[in-house]
Amino acid sequence: MGSSMRKLLIGLGIMVVTGGGLFAFVMPKATLLGEVPGRVHSAAPYGDGYLLAAGEAGLYEIDGHGVVSKVYKVTGQNVIDVAVSGDAVYTLAFSPRNRRNDLQAVDPEAGAIVRSISLGGSVVDLAGVLADGQVVIVEGGQVRFIEAGTDHTLSRVQVTGGMLTGAHLVGDRLYASRGFAGGLVTIDTSTPALLDVIETTDWLNSAVVAGRRAYVIGSLKGPGVLDLDTHDYTRVNVIDFFADEAGTGYALVKKAIYKLDEHGKPVRRTGLTGAIRSAVKNAGFKTILAVNTREILIACDGKIFKLVPVWLPLAPAALPVGE
User: Residue 31: which residues within 8 A CB-CB, separation 6 or more?
Assistant: First the structure.
């Protein structure tokens, strides 16, 4: 086999080297699990599957067999986020007509909303649920901690300098992106208290943190990697970032997904082929929803794909540009 063909097959993620210098062909397998109206914004593990916040479609469930089914639909609202902690399930729904956000406690088995509280129009993210049951939301220029069951606000952490646009909960640390004026905010949720603000020249729309790197997407410069220790910022050309529960980072590009090391460099690659590659290329909205040891969930507008990856090792290098 010629070296150029070998490089092509390895680049597609369908050939691996076995013992004795032999080659085996292994294709990453992608399956379209289902399609729902609108866009799928986020996912949260639930049972042996996932719950999906599916915009105008409502809340959906993927069971352990990969079957996609609707849990409920909220008329006139877009379900934009979902968080799960034990038996507690919460969604964040936005009403375009009156520009209002609602935090909803949900019973997925009954397909019903148990409680709903109005949060006004400035809420942008449901960050998650703490171990003690507190629900954490990003609301304008503050982070708000709400007691589960009573819906009482227990505490708030104010952040000056701009509106918060998203958040990522990692252990007892909450990392929030700041829009106008830029910046990455770190909050200790156990206190709670503001710990640090890293100023950035870009207005950040989102941030996920893995190790000592924040993977951000800005309004002016687009995707980038922010070193939490040195505050160095590197612009990269990717579609989306994701961090799993083990603290490993991932980057989605047009033709592949990269697994990142603690320095933000790609060390594993799995190719995208067939329908999922076409969907990632052509969809208006695409994002990594979930990663576990066996599979990756990717949303391309309202299509939900399951990818069984074939991770090929790479020599650590900078994230690719333009793939």
Answer: 66, 305, 306, 307, 308
Residue 287: beta bridge partners?
299
User: Phi-psi bin for 2: left (phi > 0), alpha (psi -120 to 50), beta?
Assistant: beta
Q: Is residue 214 part of a domain?
A: no
Q: Are 166 and 175 in contact (CB under 8 A)?
A: no
Total number of domains constituting the chain: 1
Is residue 169 one of the residues assigned to a domain?
Answer: no
Please name the residues in contact with 197: beta carbons below 8 A apart, sequence gap of 6 or more. 159, 161, 178, 183, 184, 185, 186
Residue 222's pLDDT band, with cuts at 50, 70 and 90, is: very high
Strand 184-188 and strand 193-198: pairing?
antiparallel
pTM to 2 decimal places = 0.89
Which residues touch 6 (CB under 8 Å, ≥6 apart)?
15, 23
pLDDT tens figures, 57-89: 999 999 999 999 999 988 889 999 999 998 899
Q: Tell me: the pLDDT tens digits for 265-285?
A: 999 999 999 999 999 999 999
- Tell whether 161 is covered by a domain: no
| Residue span of the structural domain in which 316 resides | 1-35+246-323
The pLDDT of residue 50: 97
The first and second tokens of residue 23, run together, are 């080659």
- pLDDT over 90 at 323, yes or no: no
Count of beta carbons in the 10 Å neighbourhood of residue 182: 22
- The CA-based dihedral angle spanning residues 171, 173, 90, 54, taken in that order and rounded to the nearest 10 degrees: -100
Listed residue (289, 251, 243, 293) closest to 268, CA to CA = 251
Q: H-helix or E-strand containing 276?
A: helix 274-282
- Which residue in 187, 189, 167, 165 sits closest to 178, CA to CA? 165
